[in-house]
Amino acid sequence: MARATKSAAKKPAAKSKKSASKKSNDASPEELIEFYRKMLLIRRFEEKAGQLYGMGLIGGFCHLYIGQEAVVVGMKAASKAHDTVITSYRDHGHMIAYDMDPKGVMAELTGRRGGYSKGKGGSMHMFSREKNFFGGHGIVGAQMPLGTGLAFAHKYKNDGGVNHAYCGDGAINQGQIYEAFNMASLWKLPVVYVIENNKYGMGTSIERASAVTDLYKRGDSFGIPGKQVNGMDVVEVRAAAEEANDWCRSGKGPFILEMKTYRYRGHSMSDPAKYRSKEEVAKVRKETDPIDMLRDRIFSEKISDEAALKEIDKQVKVVVTAAAEFAQQSQEPDPSELFTDVYATA
Amino acid sequence: MSIQVLMPALSPTMTEGTIAKWLKQVGDPIESGDVICEIETDKATMEVEAVDEGVLGKILVEEGTEGVLVNQPIAVILEEGEDASAADAVSAAPVPAREAPVEPTAVSSPEVSSAPTQPAEAPDPEYTGARVNQTIREALRDAMAEEMRTDERVFLMGEEVAQYQGAYKVSQGLLDEFGDKRVIDTPITEHGFAGLGVGAAFGGLKPIVEFMTFNFAVQALDQIINSAAKTRYMSGGQMSAPMVFRGPNGAAARVGAQHSQCYAAWYAHVPGLKVVAPWSGEDAKGLLKAAIRDENPVVVLENEMLYGQSFDVPSDPDFVVPIGKAKIERAGIDVTITAYSISVGLALQAAEQLAKEGIEAEVINLRSVRPLDTATIVSSVQKTNRLVNVEESWPTCGIGAEISARIMEEAFDYLDAPVKRVSCEDVPMPYAANLEALALPKPPQIVEAVKAVCYR
Ligand SMILES: Cc1ncc(C[n+]2csc(CCOP(=O)(O)OP(=O)(O)O)c2C)c(N)n1
Ligand SMILES: [Mg+2]
After folding, report:
1. B382/B377 Cα distance (integer angstroms)
2. Is B259 a catalytic residue?
C-alpha cells in the first residue's frame, strides 16, 4: 500500500536570515529528480539499518540521519571531485551522498570484511580514500580541526579543493572548534564549516546548551562569514553551498553554513527521546519533510508524475535490499585482521 | 505472506526486555512508522515502530511479559488481502539472528562467555550491617545521593546527567531530589567543564564531574592532570582540587576503537591523583563515597558492562571502602590472580574452572590502582609464589606491568615463576564481532596463564 502523498508543505518556520541566494531556484528538472532519488536512498538505507540493528546484526551505536537528507545531498551537489569531506558519527547519509557504495557502508555496519573499513571501524568510523571521505569520527568536535587541516593541505598543494567539515549543534560548543576557526581565518583556508543544527545534541536542546543559538554567527569574532540556511530545502542548500565554495575557492578563507534541520529518530538506537514531544516530531515531518517537499515541487511544476516517482522508489528499494543482502552475506573479517593496520608496513 | 514482528535489540547491551504495552490491537491497520508497542529495556522504555504495512493479525506475546528475548516474534502483520488464518501458523519461538558466514580458519577463537558472574566472595568481614540487592548503577546513584544529602558542597555536573537522568541512567532521580543548582547539564565541552569543575573545587566546592565515558575525558586531560593533580604540590599545599572525575571506562560492546579504551594506567601514572576501579556493588558504592569525601582529586573508573549487574550492597550510609586497599575476593594457596574492574569477574570465573582442576587461586580485587595496595599483593605472593595479572586494557605500560615490577622489587625471592600478564591484544578495539571477541581477555586465557606459571 503506497503512502498517501502529503499535502502541500508550508514554508518552514526557520527561514534563512539572509535568504534568496542567487541560484536558489535554478535547479534543472534532471537535478531535482536526482536530488529526490538520493534523498530517498539515504532514507530507505537508514530505515533498513534501523531494522538490521533491531535484529542484532548491527551492534554498538548506530545514529540514523533520517530527516536531515537535504543537507548532505545539497552540499554534495555543489562539490567537485577533488574536494574533501569529513564528519561525525552520524555519517551514513554523508557517505551515500558523496557516492560511496551502499553495500560497503552497510557491510561496515554489520562488521563484515566487505565494509569500507574491512569491518574494523563500524558505524562511527568509516572512511573512503577513493571518495575523499575522511570519516566518520566518534569524538564530538574532533573532526573540525581535522577538516581545517585537510583545507590547509588543499591550500598548501594549491589544488583548488575545498573541505566540507560537518558538525552538530551540540558539537559546536567544543573549544577546539574555535581554535580551528581562528587558524582557518588567519591563514585563509578553504573550508566550509557545515553546522547541522537539528535542535538537539542527544537529549539537550540547543537552548539549554548554547548561550547564543544563531550558530551561523559563531565565526563573527574570527571574521568568518556565516549564513543560516533552510536545511530541509535541498535546492536552497545547494545554492548556499555554491556561494560558500566560491568564497573559499577565491582565496577568501573559511565560510560557515548553519543548516536548520531536524532528526526524526532518537539520537542513537537506544534513545527513547523523552526530551521532545511526539507532536513536535510529527509537525516537522508533516510540514517540512525534505523529501515530501521536493516531491510536491516536482508535481506542482509538472516535472514528473506519481508513476515515475514510484519507479524511482522501486529502484531505490532494490539498491537498499542488495546492500542489506551483501552486508549479511559478506564474511566476518579474517581473525588475522586483528593485528593488521596498526602500523604502516615497510 | 504474513510478516513477523521480532523483539528488537535497542541498545548495545540489550539481550531481552519486557513488553510494556500494546498500542495497536488485532485488526488495526498498520502503516510503516506507526508505534505498535512499548518495550522496557534495562535503561529505558522504548517505542517499537513498524517497518511494514498491513493489518495487525496476531499478538504473540501479551503485554506485561518479561524476559522476552531479542529476535523472538512478538506479533504478526498481515499484508493486504491476507486473512487471519495466515497468522496462526506462526509461533513465538525466538528466531536466531542470522550468523555471519564463517570461513574455516586455522586460528581458533577463544571461547566467548559474557555471562555475568555473581560474586563468589564471602561478605566483607569488616562490614556486617544490612545489604540490599541492587544494580551497580543504583549503587553509584545512592553513593552520590547519600553524600549530597550530608554535604552541601557536593554537586554533579556533566553531559545529560540531569534531565535525561544520565546517558546510562546512573544519575536517575538526582535532579528531582537535589534540583538544578546541584545536578547540572553541561554543553558538550569536556575541557571547559572539567576546568570549571577544578576551579569550583579551588573555590571550596566538591564537584563530581561525570564524563559520558572516559574516552571523552581525553579532551579534558590537561585540566585533570595539569590543574587538578598538581596544584596542591605547586602551591606548597595552599590549595587543591578535592573532587571526583567519574564515568564508564574501557570496552562496552561493539562501540569501536574511539569508545572502548581503558585509561586506568594513564591516570595511575600521575602523582596527585587517586584512581579507583570498582567491580562489585560494594566496591562501587563504597569507593565512590570515599572518593567524594577525599580531599584529593579522585578518578573513579566505572564500567558500562557492569552497570546492569546486581550485587548485595551495604545500605548503611556510613559504609565506605578505603581507597588504596585491595580485597581478597577468593582465598587460595596455589597462585595469586590480581585484577581490577570487570576483570575481577573474569578472574573469579577462571578460578572456578581452576578449582575443578585442583588449582586453588587467590583472587585479589585491586579496587584502587593508585595508590596500589602492594602489601596485600606481596603477602599473597609470599604464600602462593606465583602471580598472574588480568586487565581489560593494553599490555604495554599497563597496571600488570607495574605490579610485575613491584613484585620483582619486593618479592623476587618468593617467585617460583615469572609473572604473567593477561590483557587485551595490543591493537585498537575492532568493531567486527569476531575480532572484538578476540581482542578482549577471556577466562580460558587466564586458566592457561595460571597453568603456565604453575608449570601444569
Ligand atoms: C567528546 C565527546 N563527548 C561526548 C560524546 C557523546 N556524544 C555523542 S553524540 C553527542 C551529541 C552530539 O550532538 P550534536 O553535535 O548536536 O550532533 P547530532 O547527534 O545532533 O547529529 C554526545 C554528547 C562524544 N562522542 N564525544
Ligand atoms: Mg544536534
Report:
1. 9
2. yes
Cα Dmax for chain A? 61
Per residue of chain B (456 residues), what is the pLDDT tens digit? 788 889 998 888 888 899 999 999 999 999 877 889 999 887 788 888 888 788 999 999 999 999 999 989 999 999 877 877 766 766 666 655 555 655 544 444 434 344 444 443 444 557 999 999 999 999 999 999 999 999 999 999 999 999 999 999 999 999 999 999 999 999 999 999 999 999 999 989 999 999 999 999 999 999 999 999 999 998 888 889 999 999 999 999 999 999 999 999 999 999 999 999 999 999 999 999 999 999 999 999 999 999 999 999 999 999 999 999 999 999 999 999 999 999 999 999 999 999 999 999 999 999 999 999 999 999 999 999 999 999 999 999 999 999 999 999 999 999 999 999 999 999 999 999 999 999 999 999 999 999 999 999
The reply to whether B179 and B299 lie within a common domain is yes
Q: Where are the domains of chain A?
A: 3-13+69-97+137-309
CATH 3.40.50.2300 describes domain A3-13+69-97+137-309 = no
ipTM over 0.85: no
Domain count for chain B, please give it.
3
Closest CA to A184 of A163, A170, A166: A163
CA pair distance B121, B139, nearest whole angstrom? 18
Closest C-alpha to A90, from A198, A235, A242, A177: A198
B100 touches chain A (CB under 8 A): yes
Cα of A69 vs centre of ligand 1, distance in Å, is 19
**CA A184 / ligand 1 centre spacing (Å):** 23
Ramachandran angles phi, psi of A111, nearest 5°: 70, 45
Q: Are residues B10 and B47 in the same domain?
A: yes
Render B179-242 in DSSP notation, one character per residue: -TTTEEE--S-HHHHHHHHHHHHHTT-EEEEEPSSHHHHGGGHHIIIIIIITHHHHTTTS----
Closest CA–CA distance from residue B104 to any residue of chain A (Å): 10
The catalytic residue among B138, B147, B159, B190 is B190
Could you tell me the residue range of the domain that residue B366 belongs to?
328-431+438-453
Could you give the CA distance from residue A60 to residue B259 in angstroms, rounded to a whole number? 10
* pTM assigned to the model: 0.84
Report CA-CA distances (Å) from B274 to B250, B278, B323: 18, 13, 8
3-class secondary structure, A268: coil
B258·A139 Cβ contact <8 A: yes
d(CA B217, CA B302): 13
- Whether residue B337 is found in the same domain as residue B280: no
- The whole-angstrom separation of Cα B323 and Cα B367 is 8
